Amino acid sequence: MNMKDYGLTPDMTTENEKGIPARVIAVHKERYALFCEYGETYGRLKTKEYYGGFEEFPTVGDFVRIDYIPGSDSRIIATLPRKTFFSRRDPDIGRGEQIVAANFDYVFIMQSLNQDFNEKRLERYLTLTLQSGAVPVVVLTKADLVEEQEPYIRCVERIVPGVKVHAISARSGLGLEGLKSYLEPGKTVALLGSSGIGKSSLVNALTGQELMRVNGIREDDSKGRHTTTHRQLIMLKNGSMIIDTPGMRELGMWDVSEGLGEAFADVEQYIGRCRFSNCRHLSEPGCAIKAAIASGELPKERWDSYCKLKREAKYSDAKDIRMREKQKRNKGFVKKSDRSKTDWTD
User: Fold this and answer.
1) Which candidate, 109, 111, 108, places its Cα nearest to that of 197?
2) Cα dist. 143→105, 119, 121, 163, 237 in Å?
3) Cβ neighbours of 64 (radius 10 Å)
4) What is the full DSSP assignment across 179-191?
5) Following CA atoms 322, 323, 328, 332 in sequence, which dihedral angle do they give, to the nearest 10 degrees?
6) Which of 160, 161, 171, 198 is the most buried (most CB within 10 A)?
7) Crossing angle of helices 300-345/288-295, nearest 10°?
8) What's the pLDDT at 283?
9) Which stretches of the chain drop beneath a pLDDT of 70?
10) What pTM was computed for the model?
């Protein structure tokens, strides 16, 4: 198996670059599990390149360049450009962007057919997926828990027109055959869904092995327990790959302008068609949004969802700006304090 099998394409690298290419297959705090032309190995970040601010910190799915060291941890010296990625606000410092998964071709947007099924969450996940640059696929898990799957499928098709929908059961094998068209050699699929919707069971079913621990369903709310503890990329027997990471649960709605426009194209087609350019879509005459809702062309629920996600993204952006400004003020205070100490001691 070589780097091509792990998804590396010729356009990702150039000649005369230092080191050799590798792919991040798992993240364990400051230590990275890698695959390179010599097989599986481990690596740590080269301090100057990463902590000096010259390189993007790598995550699971990233392609990197390493100084390979046989029998020891290699040095990761560069992160290659990403074709797709998921990001969130950095939970450790409360600001800035943290990439949690990269370089995937498809995203399985997963919801289970029990009490986890949620239309609003589906709209949110679709927006995030379209923003990532990957192709969304809706996977409805635990289909064996309901008598009829069709009403759920029709509901999803109404919310996300044009997106493929699959109802599956990892326990019985129902619908798993339909996922094989996405799981091609060299292709990577990212799993996106809330805790306990059957991601671990799906991975085990697709690999035919108990690779991931599975916990039972809680009787009080029919939800599963979260079992993924670290970011990882799993190679299937046919050469396709799956990315699962607990960080997917905390993806934020910031910088989602492209994804929101694609996910809500039926809504945005009316934006800019009002009589007044500064229309707030409340009580102004000639409002295209109000007219579309009144005629039934635009469901009010879709408009409400669009507005909610728009507000959340705006709030997230504003919060990030406030955090940066606060950091600058604190830094300025520290410098001023340091100068005062210097003056006193002199």
Assistant:
1) 111
2) 25, 17, 18, 19, 25
3) 24
4) GTTT--TT-EEEE
5) 100
6) 198
7) 140
8) 87
9) 90-96, 211-230, 247-250, 252-255, 315-346
10) 0.78
